[in-house]
Fold:
Amino acid sequence: MNPRQLEYFRDKLLAWKDAIYREAAGTLSQLQTESLREADLTDRASSETDWSIELRTRDRQRKLISKIDAAMRRIEDGEYGYCEVTGEPISLARLEARPIATMTVEAQERHERQEKVSREE
Structure:
């Protein structure tokens, strides 16, 4: 991968991380300003369910940030864009769709098949 492509993916990862932080700040702000004091039990349950889903989403995004950071480290180490299993280059199309990818599509499919088999046993 050439330096221009690496810079493109670095910028893409940083923008993604920044967007996640902005969304998290918005959620935190809403949690601080809005309360769950609905008089109706059904309305309150609905609000609690909505907040539960929102907080689970934020937790998944928190985990995503660590994957983004790992991808940034791979860029710095010169390992970005190469499959951690086979050592082959990961296609640019795959990295465009999933910039945190660590495996080629083929290696990922093999990995998922092996996971499925081990779960079934």
About this structure: DSSP finds four helices and no strands in the chain.
